[in-house]
């Protein structure tokens, strides 16, 4: 089932696309990186970088549906959508290799930092330990989520926990995975480090 144009939000960095979306009756966000050289059409919403996008979408969502959505959730959805659409690195003759999400030069890109901040902001202070086997071909793992550490510190902690459990593991999207069932050992270790720990799931 399609959506009416008035129910859609278009995001474009090209004036031709912005004007076409406005003509179709959409709400339009214009990514205008050069506002001094390019004028955003009157009925479009201008942003100068991708970091402003979650707040704008949150406001539009609240105004239209009267339902607030946490910005960190919107940020993840936007980043994932852009990553799916653009995929891989792109190349700019002006900047060389650029980030496929914000399209800034890799040296200036802050997407990883922003994603890290959003992940940490979403945590509630409770570390959850869970035994998981679904989709792992019978090879269960113990996952540890909700640890309020940066990616580098999380990897260092994972290394310590793997050594303590005598097994392998990895860090995936802010979650530590330890091969096998080591819930009790991990709980003791994390409590000793001062974390509030809970068992989750079955």
Automatic annotation (TrEMBL):
CDD domains documented for this protein: YciH_like (cd11567)
SUPFAM superfamilies in the record: eIF1-like, HAD-like
Gene3D superfamilies for the chain: HAD superfamily/HAD-like, SUI1-like domain
Protein name (record): SUI1 domain-containing protein
Family annotation (Pfam families): SUI1 (PF01253)
Highest taxon in the source lineage: Bacteria
PROSITE patterns: SUI1
UniProt keyword list: Protein biosynthesis, Translation regulation
Any one Gene Ontology molecular-function term assigned to this protein's record: translation initiation factor activity
Domain SUI1 intervals: 131-194
Positions of transmembrane segments: none
């Amino acid at each position: 089932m399609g959506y009416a144009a008035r129910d859609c939000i278009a995001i474009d960095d090209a004036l031709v696309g912005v004007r076409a979306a406005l003509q179709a009756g959409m709400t339009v966000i214009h990514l205008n990186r050069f506002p001094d050289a390019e004028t955003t059409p009157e009925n479009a919403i201008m942003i100068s970088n991708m970091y402003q996008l979650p707040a704008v979408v949150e406001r539009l969502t609240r105004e239209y549906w009267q339902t607030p959505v946490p910005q960190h959730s919107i940020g993840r959805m936007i980043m994932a959508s852009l990553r799916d659409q653009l995929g891989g690195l792109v190349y700019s003759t002006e900047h060389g290799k650029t980030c496929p999400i914000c399209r800034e030069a890799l040296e200036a890109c802050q997407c990883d930092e922003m994603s890290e901040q959003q992940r940490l902001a979403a945590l509630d202070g409770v570390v959850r330990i869970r035994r998981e086997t679904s989709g792992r071909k019978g090879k269960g793992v113990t996952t540890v989520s909700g640890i309020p550490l940066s990616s580098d510190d999380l990897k260092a902690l994972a290394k310590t926990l793997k050594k303590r459990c005598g097994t392998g593991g990895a860090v995936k999207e802010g979650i530590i995975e330890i091969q096998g069932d080591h819930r009790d050992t991990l709980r003791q270790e994390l409590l000793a480090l001062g974390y509030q720990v809970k068992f989750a799931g079955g």
